[in-house]
Amino acid sequence: MAASDATTARSAPGAGLSPGLILAFVCMGQFMVFTDVSIVNLALPSIQEGLGMSEVSLNYIVTAYATVLGGFLLLGGRLADTFGRRRLIQVGFVIFALASLTSGLADSGTMLIASRAVQGFGAALITPAALAILTNTFAEGPERNKALGVWGSLSGIASIVGVILGGVLADTWGWEWIFWINVPIGLTAAVLAPRILPESKAEDRGKFDTVGAVTLTAGLLLLIFTLGEATTVGWDTFRTIGSLVGVVALLTAFVVIEAKVASPMMPLRIFRLKTMRVANISAVLVFGTFGSLFFFASLFMQQAFGYSPLKAGFAYVPLAFSVAAGAGIASAMVTKMAARPVVMMGLTLTVAGLLLMWRAPADGSYAVDLLAPFILLGLGCGMVFVTLQIAAFVGVTDEDAGVGAGLINTSQEAGGALGLAVVATIAYSGMSSEMAATGGNPDLITEVHEAANHDAFLSGALLGTVALLVVTFMMPRGKQSMSSGPAEAGEGPALVKADAEK
Questions:
Q1: For the chain, which domains are there?
Q2: pTM for the whole thing?
Q3: What is the mean pLDDT of the chain?
């Protein structure tokens, strides 16, 4: 990638180590972060029993981590650009490891929830810094596409592995170990980072945009928290409506601030890049689709198929392998064609899988009714994750790599929260009265659960269809921006300008 005068300064990998080792290191960090999004799910009953927590407070073990992670990603990206990406990833690993230690040592629900929030903050420093290091290590084009293919596939696989690993550890060593396992990994990574990772930062840093950082982070925290709570408190309540008004006010203020300050936290010029812009819009819809899928598929297998939590976790194994296969297919395809047809193909597979889930009966079998849709969903998930990650960096300069990384990851987190909130609202509409009408009959209860989950899968398919339409009609068609780096033919500025004007 051709660099401007104010672009990031790159340094060589530490100790003469290869780019492959750098990729393995940053992917390990990403895997740890995404595993912890889902690792607590199957361990929640054990945690509830061990700490005497209420049903309501259990939800915050999950949302505290996800809310802080999503809310601080953009701030983490800009901090990495300003103070050094390797430095931020080291700080993030230390914070994550120490918060994991206190999570396992928690003797109350309050302490655990607070520790999970700090874990989320550490994760928000690791993820954008790691992704920025990756994009600075590999030149735009086939080399970077392959690296982002590995990164994107691990993002999808880690969430599934987290479910399985959480069930295994909770049933064997105890729920504390779902957190303690991170401690030696995180601290070792912090120590090894200077020996493996190059340091890089934006040379023309200017004064840090403190007001913009506070405004944006507050707006994102409030948005993700409000979306997560909407299914519990209701969309039409004063609390939800008031919070959404607050979100709009904060994000509007942020845009005004960024247009005026000399050194903005998020340079608005980055939104001139159409491929990047559409990739982020698509990510919101796509991750909303997959966020609702993983949540309701877990419930469907337990409520309608009668699976134990551990069996439901292992039922995801074929899906995990399919994600890896889809990521490999996408990585090869984007070197030969534009992002648009690859994402379209992935979303078509995803919608088809969700429609098959919609028709799966409660008295069906795994091999007949779940395996095929899981394979389709995994292939679609891998293809879409990888391609959107690559598209989100087309034309983004090294100077703004941290912001680009924070932006795509924020779109994913916000999209997941939004999709789950919307789909859950549809699926659970009227469910209370339907459950009351069952009179405690187990067969009727199963039917109610089956209907709710079917509504969720159909809603997810509709959300995926909207994403497919956005990609079809909005994403640029040209393949040169995906298949080769701008610098290869001396066309850097021209390609970026063309992408911005499409």
A1: 18-200 (1.20.1250.20), 210-264 (no CATH), 266-477 (1.20.1250.20)
A2: 0.78
A3: 83
